Amino acid sequence: MPRKMPTKKIAMKACKNCGALVPKEANICPVCGSNNFTEDWEGIFVVISTDSEIAKELKFNKKGTYAIKVSGSYIIK
Ligand SMILES: [Zn+2]
Questions:
Q1: Is 46 within a domain?
Q2: What is the pLDDT of residues 60-76, one digit of tens each?
Q3: 22: CA distance to ligand 1 center in Å?
Q4: Has residue 23 got a pLDDT over 60?
Q5: What is the pLDDT of residues 5-20, one digit of tens each?
Q6: What's the gap in Å between 52 CA and the centre of ligand 1?
Q7: What is the CATH number for 27?
Q8: Residue 32, annotated ligand binder?
Q9: Does residue 48 form part of some domain?
Q10: Predicted model pTM
Q11: Domain count, the chain
């Protein structure tokens, strides 16, 4: 039997400034230094290499895990 993957609400919150996903206990965003977080996020986008065309295109200059949508707004446009 295939196991179902949890689709959202894993123990992460999203930075409202840059969309980075951080553990719920984090106080400061490791990507942009903001302390403005929300648990209202959807989707996951992983930046593995900042040299990739897509990372440049989307202006992600740090590796990490980002939410696609934060508080109803798309981080990725
Ligand atoms: Zn941030």
A1: yes
A2: 788 889 999 999 999 87
A3: 9
A4: yes
A5: 555 556 899 999 999 9
A6: 20
A7: 2.20.28.90
A8: yes
A9: yes
A10: 0.76
A11: 1
1 is in an annotated binding site: no
User: Mind listing the pLDDT tens digit for each residue in 29-70?
Assistant: 999 999 999 999 999 988 888 888 877 887 778 888 999 999
2 C-alpha to ligand 1 centroid (Å): 35
Contact 76, 58 (CB under 8 A): yes
Asked if the structure places residue 61 within a domain, the reply is yes
**Which structural domain range is residue 61 located in?**
12-70
30, 20 Cβ separation under 8 angstroms: yes
Compute the distance between CA of residue 33 and CA of residue 72 in angstroms, rounded to an integer: 22
77 C-alpha to ligand 1 centroid (Å): 16
Q: Is residue 7 part of a domain?
A: no
The answer on whether 18 is annotated among ligand-binding residues is: yes
> What is the distance between the alpha carbons of residues 43 and 65, in angstroms, rounded to a whole number?
10
Residue type, 61: N
